[in-house]
Amino acid sequence: MRRTAPPAVLSLLDAGTVFHSATALQELLHGLGALDPGDPRTPTVVERVRTQVISIARHRLRVPDADILGRAALLAGLVCRLQGYARDDRLRALNDCVLFVQALKHGLTVLTANVGDFDVLAQLEPRGRVAFYRRG
């Protein structure tokens, strides 16, 4: 949505089957709630997110179950302790762990530019698959 993914990543998305996590959707919508309504950029961002959310096919939206949430919570606690995350970073770590464990459970690959956090997760749980890219 930021239009920063390189062409190779966009081609990959066009060629494969893309699934979305309700956790990522939740992060997007939380971001909308945090926007300043008086900022002139807000309507553009709202429309971009709206367009993205509407385009998600419901059968491609994965909702984490209790098993995923529990395993992700334990993994997030471990990551926060090992990485020395401050209190403000813990929720972000939990969301990343939910995405990672959810993809692992469903045999999917996480596509992300977030090398710092997801590389640690891939090292702690090598069965998880992550494809990294650099923003253009």
Task: Write up this protein.
There is one protein chain. By secondary structure, the protein is mainly alpha-helical. It is built from six helices and four strands; from the N terminus they run αβααβααβαβ. It has helices spanning 7-15, 22-34, 42-55, 66-83, 87-106, 115-124; strands spanning 20-21, 61-62, 109-112, 129-132. The strands form two sheets. It has a two-stranded parallel ribbon. Helix 2 (22-34) packs antiparallel against helix 3. The radius of gyration is 16 Å and the shape is globular.
Task: Based on the model shown, name its key terms.
globular; 136 residues; two-stranded parallel sheet; single chain; 6 helices
Write the layout of secondary structure elements.
Layout: H1 7-15, E1 20-21, H2 22-34, H3 42-55, E2 61-62, H4 66-83, H5 87-106, E3 109-112, H6 115-124, E4 129-132
Parallel strand pairs: 1-2, 3-4
Helix pairs in contact: 2-3, 4-5
Rg, alpha carbons? 16 Å
What's the SSE pattern? HEHHEHHEHE
Helix/strand/pairing class, anyone? mainly alpha
Based on DSSP secondary structure assignment, what is the total number of beta strands? 4
Distance between the termini: 13 Å
Largest sheet: 2 strands, parallel
- Provide the helix percentage: 55-70%
Report the uncertain regions: none
> In one word, what is the shape?
globular
Beta strand %: 5-15%
Name the strands of the widest sheet in spatial order: 1-2
What's the rounded overall pLDDT mean?
92
**DSSP summary: helix tally:** 6
